[in-house]
Amino acid sequence: MYHTNSGLRPGWASYLSHYTHFPVIIALDMSLAAAAPVAGYDQYLTVTVPVLSPGNSGFANGEELQLFWEMERALVNSLEREAQAIYAGRTSSQGKKHLIFFLYNADPIEALIEGIQALYPAYSIDFRMEPDPEWDIYFDLLFPNLEETNSLLNQRMLKRLIRSGIDLQQEQTVQHWIYCKTEEGRQALRQVAETQGFEAQMLPTRIGEHHFVYLLRLCKRHKVDQNTIDSVSATLRTWARAHHGDYDGWEVSVEKCQALDRELKDLE
Fold first, then answer.
1. For 225-266, how does the pLDDT look when each residue is reduced to its tens digit (9 = 90+)?
2. Which range marks the domain in which residue 245 is found?
3. What is the pTM of this model?
4. CA-based angle 110:114:118, to the nearest 5?
5. Buried b (16+ CB within 10 A) or exposed e, 169-193
6. What distance in Å separates the CA atoms of residue 171 and residue 213, rounded to the nearest whole number?
7. Which of 23, 31, 68, 124 is the most buried (most CB within 10 A)?
8. By three-state DSSP, how is residue 228 classified?
9. Residue 194's CB: how many other CB atoms inside 10 A?
10. CA–CA separation, 178 vs 200, rounded Å?
C-alpha cells in the first residue's frame, strides 16, 4: 500500500496559472511524478468546496482562508487514514476549491465526506469519482508546464535568498549560466546578450561525452523578485534555445561581475 503523510511532504509546491483567462492557484505534490501512476490507484476523487466570500480575484481570504486550511487538513487526514487515499493537489479559482485524491478503495468515500460536511455545515461539499489509471488529471491539470516549473525553481532559490537576509527589491549581481552546442552559437549568443547590457565571459568547455559543452556566463545587476527573475530567466532561456543552447540557471554573488570566476566542479 502507498503511504502518505497528510500533504506535508517536501515535494509540495504551489504556483499561479490561468485557465480561460481566469487566475488559478495550483498546489501539488511534485514528488508523486516519479511514482505515478501508482499501482492500484486507478481512479481519482475531486472534492469541491465553494468559497462563501471570494475576493475580487475569486480566492478565499482572511478568516475564511484559515477555515479552508482547517477543512483541508480534516479532509486529507480522514481520506488518507480511512481510505488510504493519495492527496495529489488542489486548485483554487472562480470562487471554488477542488481537492484531488487518487483512490485505492472508493467504498468509504461517501461516508467520510458526509462526516466532514457535518463539521462544516455552512459549506456545500460536492465530490465525484472518475477512472484515471494513467493519472492524466495529475499530469494534465496539476503538473506545471516548462515555464511554470522554472518559476517554481526560481521560487525555491528566492526563499533561500530571503533566509540569508537578501532584499529581493534591491538590485543584486546575478550570474546566469548557459551551455551551447557549438562555439559559433556561444559567440552569437554572447553578442546578443552584450547588446542588452549583460557582461559575458567565455568559460572552459566541458570534458567528456556532453552535447552542450561551450559554457557562457552572463552577468548583470537587477532585482531578484519573483516577477523580475522569472522574466529575465525566461528571456535567457529563449535566447539559449535560439542559439542551440541550454539555460542552466542563475545565482547571486556579492562581488562585481568582472571579478567573478565560477569554479567548474561539474566540468569533468
1. 999 999 999 999 999 999 989 998 999 975 555 544 443 333
2. 146-259
3. 0.67
4. 175
5. eeebbbbbbbbbbeeebbebbbeeb
6. 31
7. 68
8. helix
9. 12
10. 11
